[in-house]
Amino acid sequence: MNGIELLLTRQSTAQLISPAPDQTSLDTILKAAMRVPDHAALTPWHFTLVAGDGLDRLSHIFTQAAINMGFNENKILKATKMPYRAPLIIIVSSNIVKHEKVPKQEQIITAGCCVYAMQMAAFSLGYGAMWRTGDFAYNEYVKQQLAINKQDEIIGFLYVGSLAKVEKKKTRKNYNAYVTYL
Question: How many domains, in total, are found in the chain?
Fold first, then answer.
């Protein structure tokens, strides 16, 4: 698959199963993230890999956060199950560096590019991936439990695994409705 084909055919995959990427594939996925545009070479991101027993720990964190947020019983149960949607979750958080020419927003966008690059790399290697955020991405308790600094943000949870089924190709909107020429 060439680069253009990858860009035009990639899609998110919600139904993921074991196996997770092997170490060689995971190295490639992480290396792809390290190649994103990075003004002033600040590397304003951090990756937390969650697999195996880590999924149980993340489940506990999500459950406690759901309880703290006053979720009902059904939402608490859903929160408990969330980490088991894939055999690997890569949590991408910002690691903001104070810099006179690179504002926080730009650094957050750069960290977002990491998530996208990893998703693209996973897809190109034959794995599925889904970038998720939601309540727990913006929850202070979750950040604290994941040792993410108060000034930093969870950019997303990238769920990665093997495809549970062959995904139907999604149709894409025509770009013309979203373009203005000046």
Answer: 1
